[in-house]
């Protein structure tokens, strides 16, 4: 809703983006003001956002991207050696990179799985379950 959107914009500016000095954020923080859209539009111009204020989703995505860039820039040493959670164990990563390589298509469990999937998706039965899988 509108109040949550305005609070979100103020939070991003206060906590992450910090484009304005604290004393210059008053108009943006006054979320109940009728002039808030004008303040927000000025803010978007000041941070060089390429979107119009009517394009809310795009604006939010762009502001989040700006906040992430600024957060990384402020703490580059902290984040430079970070890896995604799934990539921490390199042995498992290499092993799980291609899980279908070790798949045994002649296994009866595999055939039963294909049949169950075909029933679930209401796919017409075929004598060759590999054709049905395709």
Automatic annotation (TrEMBL):
Residues 76-97 are annotated as: Disordered. Pfam families: RLL (PF10036). Belongs to the RTRAF family. This is RNA transcription, translation and transport factor protein.
